[in-house]
Amino acid sequence: MPPYADQRRSLPFVIRYARRHLGFLAGLVTAAVAVGIVYRYLFDPLEERELSFYLRSCLHAAGLAISGWAVHVSLAAAPRTRFLGVLRRLPQAAELAIKVLVMTTVLTIVAVGLEFALYPTPFLSQHWLVHDLPSIIAISFSISLVSGALFEFRRLIGGRVLGSFLLGTYHRPRREQRIVMFLDIAGSTALAEQMGELRVHDLITSFFFDIDRPIAEHDGEVHAYVGDEVIVTWPQSDDPERNARSLRCFFAAEDRMADLAPAYTREFGVAPRFRAGIHAGPVVVSECGDAKRQIAYFGDTMNVAARLCEHSKTAGEALVASAEMLSAAAIPPGLIVGSPANIRLRGRQTPVEAHAVRRNRPD
Length: 363
Hints:
Elements: H1 10-20, H2 22-43, H3 51-77, H4 92-118, H5 126-157, H6 159-167, E1 174-185, H7 188-195, H8 197-210, H9 212-217, E2 221-226, E3 229-235, H10 240-243, H11 245-268, E4 274-288, E5 294-298, H12 300-315, E6 319-322, H13 323-328, E7 335-337, E8 341-343, E9 352-359
Parallel strand pairs: 4-6
Antiparallel strand pairs: 1-3, 1-4, 2-3, 4-5, 6-9, 7-9, 8-9
Helix pairs in contact: 1-3, 2-3, 3-4, 4-5, 5-6, 7-8, 8-11
């Protein structure tokens, strides 16, 4: 069983996740209220097209939207808990079916409860049970199925990538200023020889899963997983504090893996160590491929970040950042920047000024 954090530790993540998606909730409630008003106008009897009934429709729709959103937030954090981590190990279809069933149940209960609260007139007649209740269940199931499929599709390819495909953002190549971090597991070749390919694969996938939370909490975008390496990017900002997210992300991942080290040692006999290289600069972003389309990043910035990650191995440092990256970021408290070193990276003629970034540990 892969190591998971304690269930109580997932609560702050749920809260932070919810806060980051409050804008989405506001849009969802607005859309639901609009649908409730239109539904009341088109399908309800003429005598019920009054202000009081429209207000009830708005409250009904808003309650369903908030409930559905709450279920989504809870399920998004579910694989990060010990009890519900079983969802992650299920086939995608089974995981989707369980999530749809849970959301359908919750929406049905909320819908019936709102009927009791908003319409005091007794409605549990045979007509309501035969016609209205099945309609509520069918609508709840349809909403759950569509929203669940969309969220799973978004999770598979990434929210930003999905939006870019739908809007055609990168149909033509675009040049963007981005911060790029290449992060890989140290000594993975030796681990594969020692543990076997299947076991080390389990370790790597568990590692990627467990560092996903620090990446998400620091607004990182996972561009790709390549072997034992993950590529994470951030838009480069004019705000040095925002640009420091990549530095904070690395050390937050380090803290998380330190917390999980005993669980990894029990499961795999070793706790993974990792290193990273970070660079900032222009990146060309575009769609590529046809049978399998994806958003690809090109340019010197990607190459330098990859080479810095390689250099961290020979330098014996956990994190190496370029001078361009550090000049654009505010160094978080508790971190220190090492002396500059002009290094020549493989495949690049111009040297790169790089610095090790370490924790400020007192002697």
